[in-house]
Predict the structure.
Amino acid sequence: MDESAELLRLPSAPGSLDDLTVAGDVLSVHGWLFQPGCTLTSVEVRLDGRPVGFARPVQRDDVKRAFRRAGSGSPLGFAFTTPLARERPARLDLIGRSAEGPRARLSCVLPSEEESLLPLPPKHLTERATGFHGAAFRMQGLRMFTDLTDQLSRFGVAARGRILDWGCGCGRVARHFATRWPDAELVGCDIDEEAIDWCRRSLRGEFVAIRPAPPTPFEAGSMDVVVACSVLTHLGRADQTLWLAEMRRILAPGGVFIASTHGEYAFQLGRLGSPGNALLSVWRWLAWLATRPTHLSGIDDSSADGRLGHVARRGYYRTTFQSQAYTLHACSPHFEVLDYVERGLNGHQDLIVLRRPR
């Protein structure tokens, strides 16, 4: 097995790149990572798969307090600075190690010069969809793009054909597909027309405003790949069923659909918020956790989310948690299941990788 395949076998670590800066020929990064049920002791740094040393441990009491009820183990803060070769690396992998060896990874492609020059959406658009803005919004998108393309590459999906970013919002992930997959025909769609208008003006690709209920305007079998970041996580049971059938309709035979869900880990964290901001809404989360069961079974779509109330019917946009078993059961009538990756997106949401049968 080659080193890249072995690396992808490591579980994705919850964590954050709080700052990543390339200044001249020097890369500086600091952040934290966490592996439930494990005490990490060090963080190995790799650039394009090549080990370049270990990060310096940093005390992060703020993160430890926020995650003190997230199971055994403790978050590990880190910082490092390293010179870059003349040929700038494209990828950063941080390997969390315990006394037993490698236990988890936090991976991210490094921002290209072209991506750094792309405009950022206005704050009200980014916070409406993600809770982040500015450099943090860009970094979250880079990590999501890395996680999605890592899984797509495992199943032989090439960077070409017609790819749909379903629920693209203001381009958190689409901006990176637009620059890094230049041979692909990028399409983005969302129910938020303001976000779609911004993407049309600012990013390469075709961007389409759609209704909150299927069908979409796309022809049957017209997409080779569909990605969905934080879409099923906001749909109730009935709407998920309708949209899964629509994704099968528009996906070409043999095409791949990869989508994120709030699985068991996200359920345990509840309303803590994105792993990139461990201190968000901690007290609200603790109150919520006290009233919930300790294990997720089936689907819990009982919590409304009002952020998109201006573009969808009341109660449409929700915070939905679902178990692995439920997700597999819901997707199997429409798709062949290729894999289910716990915490596969940003170390927080689970990923299910599906294929439309030929």
Summary: Residues 135-154 form the longest helix (20 residues).
